[in-house]
Amino acid sequence: MSAEQTIIMKDVFELNGKWTLTDAETGKIYAATVPGCNYRALQEAGEISDPFVGLNEKADLWVGERDWIYEKQFELSPSFLNNGKIYLSFDRLDTLAEIILNGRVVAKTSNAHVGYEFEVKEFLAEKNLLRVKFSSPINYVLERQKSLKCPVNGNGLTGIAALRKPSCHFGWDWGPVIPVSGITGEARLVGLSGGRISELSVFQHHGEKVTVEVRAAAEKPLAAGLELVAELISPSGDGQRKSAAQSGENTFVFEIENPMLWQPNGATKRTEQPLYTVNLKLLSGDTVVDEKEKKIGLRTVELDLSPDEYGENFAFKVNGKRVFCKGASVIPFDSYPSRVTEADVERYVKIAAECGFNMLRVWGGGEYGSETFYDLCDKYGILVWQDFMFACQGYPFFDEEFSKSVFEEIEYQVKRLSHRASLAIFCGNNEIEVMSMAWIYKRKYISSAENFFYETLPALIKKHNDFTPYVPGSPLGAGYMKKNGSEDVGDTHLWAVWHGFQPIKFYRKNHTRFCSEFGFESMPDERTIVGFLGKGNLPSLSDEAFSAHQKCKNGNEKMKFYITENYRLPKSFEDYVYLSEVCQAACVADATEHWRRNAGRCNGALYWQFNDCWPTCSWAGIDYHKRYKALQYQAKKFMNPFTVSIEDGDKKFRVFALNDRIEPQEGILTVQIVRFDGEVVFEEKTAFSVLGGGKKVVWEGELKKFGGRKALKNTVFAATLSAYGKSETKTVLFDKERNVSLPAAKIDVDVKVRGTTAEYCLESDKFVRCLRLKTAYDSPLSDNFFDLLPGKKVTITGAVPEGADSKDVKEGLSLMHVGMVKPCGSRLSEKLFRLKTLADPWNLLNYVWYKFFM
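Now predict its structure.
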C-alpha cells in the first residue's frame, strides 16, 4: 500500500472482550469474555471447578445440559451507523445459537465448523443490546436421536452425529466429555460505505512456465468508479501489479520468472518455505475501499494411485517427486477452544517441523484448523492431510436439514483452504467405512454414507477445487467397505499392536502402502499427573481420579501388559510412568523405521497422536502441558530426513541409509558391537552416498559370524552416522530388556550454564539404556531418553531461567534408565498377569479380531 492510500471506507467495531453469561434456567448472571465458552466463564467465576482436575469432569456435566445466553451492550457513533452496509460477523459459534439484536432475531445457527456473517444495518441504533442464546447440545442430541435413531456411538453420546459440532466434545478414548457452548471465535461489526471484495481465489498452473491466476470480484458494480488492483509479491519483495475496471468476475494472470518452489519440510535444508503474497485492493481513486490478501507457495501436489507390482500405489508427489510422509494426527489443542493462542499453535507446528515431520493429519472427529495453523504449516513446509469433520459414526445424510448445513460447511471450508501450499489432500471421513459393518441393521446410514463420500462430496469440492487430491475416507480400500485395511491398496489404520495385544515389533510383518494411523498409549509426565490429580503425590493405577483420566477401555492393563512383555514390572509408580513412555517410543520408532526402509512400497507413516486436548493418559507424543514424552524425543531421530536404520533380523543385521532430501547425501557409517562393560567386540567403518529420495543398504552381517544372538545377549549393536559435522547413533539389543542383564552404571555429570542455556555433559563407564534426564524446568532438552555407550561423552542442552546457577541446575537434575528399574514381582507372576489380561472377554475379542481378521 502506498503512503497516500488509506482505508477510510471500511469501519470495524470489535465485539470481543467483556460480555455477560446468563444461566437460562436459574437466571444467574456471570462475567464472560469473547472469544470464550460457558465452561471457561463459569470456572473463572468459581461456579464450577476445573474439569481437568480430579473427578470434576463428571461433576461439571450439568453445564452442557442447560441453555446459556451471552449479552453485550454497546454504543455506535452516528458516523458508523451511516455506513451503507453493516455486517455482524462471527468467526465461530459453538453451536446452537439464536442471535438477537435489539429484540429482533437476526439468525439461528447450528454449525460450529462455519464462520457466519449477517447484514444488520436495519437492526442497529446508537445504543444496542446483542444477545446470543445457546441451546444445550446434549438436549438437542437426545431429542434428534428420537427420530433419527443414529447407530450406537462407541465414542460418547449416541446421536451426536446429527450435530455439526466437534464430536470429541462428547468424549473419546483419550478425551473428556466437555460439550462447551459459546462465542468461541472473534466477533465484530463491519461497516462499508463503498464496494466490497466478494471473491479472491488463487490458482496456479505448472507447465513450461509457472503462472498464478487470480479470480476476483466486488459486490458493487465497478462501473461506479471502483477499480480492482491485484498484486503478486515474491518472497524477495518484488511485485507485479494488474488492474481491472469491468463489472463481474475479473481474472488476473501473473507469469513467474525463476519461481521459488515450496517444498515439504526436510526435502531441503531450508527451515522456512518461500511464500508469495497475493494482494487484492478495491480502489476509489487513491482510497482503499477494501483489501484482501492470501499467501501461496508454488508447488504441485498429486496422489499417485497407479497400479504397481504390489497392488496399487498410495503415494504423494510434490513437484513431481515422491515424498515419504512422516508425522502424526492432530486433535484439538484444548477442550476449551478459545484458550488456544497463536503462540500455542506456533509452538506445536514448530515442534513438528523440528522433529522432522513433513505432514500433519487434521483428524475428522475434532475441528478444522485455525488460519494461524495453516499459515504456520505453509511457513514450515508441513503438508496437511485434511479430514472433513466426520468420524466413526453413522451420519444422517438422508436428512434434508442436516445435509443443507453440511453443504454450507463444505463450501466454506473448501473455499477457505484451497489456496494453501500445505494442503495435500481432502479426506472425506475417518473410519466410517470400517465402522459401517456394525450398522448392517441400519442400511440407510450405510447407503447414504456411500453416496455422500463417493459422489456428493467430491462433486461439492470440485465446484471450487479440481486440483487437490481427494479420497472418500481413511482407511481407504478398493470401494465402499471393500478391502479396508488391505496391504496392497489404499491407506491403513493399524491397531493390532495395542488394541490387538500383538508384540511391539508386529508391524514389521505389515507392508501397508501408507499407514495413516497407528500408535501406542503411555502416561504423561509425572508433573502432569500430579496436576490433574489435584493432590501432591503420585497415585496407584487403581486411584479413582487417575482412572478418570484414562479413557481407553482397559488402558492401564494394556500398558502393564506391554511393560511386562518387554521389561520388568516396576515397584514405583514413577518408574511405571517412565517405562510406559519407553514402550511407546520403541513401538512407534520400530514401525516407522520399518516402513521407511520399505519406502516405495510404503509411502507414509502418521502415528496417532501428536497432542492432547487435556491432561490424560493417551497416545500423544506431547502431553497437554507441552511436555515431551520419550516418543517426541525419539521422533527427531526416526523422522530425521537423513539417517540410518537398523534392520535386526533373526540371522542377519542390515543397516540402511535413508534419505528424504531431494539432493544426494553422503556420510560415514560406523558399526560396532559393544559389551555392556565397554569392550568393543567388532567395529567397521564404511563411507557411502545415497541418492536423493533414496535408501540404501550400507552394511550387513550374519549373526553367526559373532556367535549368534545368545552369545551377544549382553552386548549392544550400534550404528553411528557421521555427516556434515554431526553424528547420530542408533542402537539395538540382541534380546528384550527383560531378558538381559543391564549393568549398574556410574554416570558422571557436569553442568555448565551459559546465559539461559544449560549444558549437561555426561559420560558412563557402562552401557546405559534409555537414559532420561529430568530437570526442574518444563522446556524440552536437545535430546533425552537416549542410549549412552560406555566411555562416550555426550552433551545435552536445555533452556534455563535467566540467572540460573550451575550448582542449582545440577541439584535439580535426576537421571533414570532401564537398568535402574527395580522389579516388584517374579517373572512367573508377570506371565500370569498377561494371561489373565488376555482372558478378559473384551481383550480376547480384540486379540482375535486383530490377529485373524484385520
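The mean pLDDT is 94.
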